[in-house]
Design goal:
127 residues, alpha/beta, two-stranded antiparallel sheet, globular, Thioredoxin-like_sf, protein-disulfide reductase [NAD(P)H] activity, Thioredoxin domain-containing protein 17, redox-active center, cytoplasm
């Protein structure tokens, strides 16, 4: 089973990644709007639509890989042009949801995260 991790907010994300050791295994990160309110769903409708696809394809990913679910914050935090997730050269987020292979060029943004074939390729293709 894929090693799952969950992080909320930019500071916690930075802390986690600075200490994180993947053991040389693949690392995939899914950036989503934070889950708010009693229903436990993200405020981001696109993230809500993408998550079931990502979760299904995650079940087919390399069981020794790592998957990090990152909540970027509430809507106001995300919409701020100075949101640190947007400014960080390692993340360069422009759209939610975004899924990427850490330290690799592979990245899916927005509606791409709702396409099982693209999500599967991100999880499973070597290069």
């Amino acid at each position: 089973m894929v090693n799952r991790h969950h992080v909320e907010g930019y500071e916690k994300f930075c802390e986690f990644m600075n200490k994180f050791d993947s053991g040389g295994k693949l690392v995939h990160i899914f950036f989503s709007g934070s889950k708010l309110g009693p229903n436990g769903q993200s405020w981001c409708d696109d993230c809500i639509r993408a998550w079931p696809v990502v979760e299904k394809e995650l079940g087919k990913a390399d069981p020794s890989s790592h998957f990090i679910y990152v909540e970027v914050g509430d809507r106001l935090t995300w919409k701020d042009p100075n949101c640190p997730f947007r400014k960080d050269p390692k993340t360069k987020l422009m759209v939610l949801p975004t899924m990427m292979r850490w330290k690799g060029p592979q990245k899916l943004e927005g509606e791409q995260c709702e396409k099982p074939e693209l999500v599967s390729m991100l999880f499973n293709d070597e290069d």
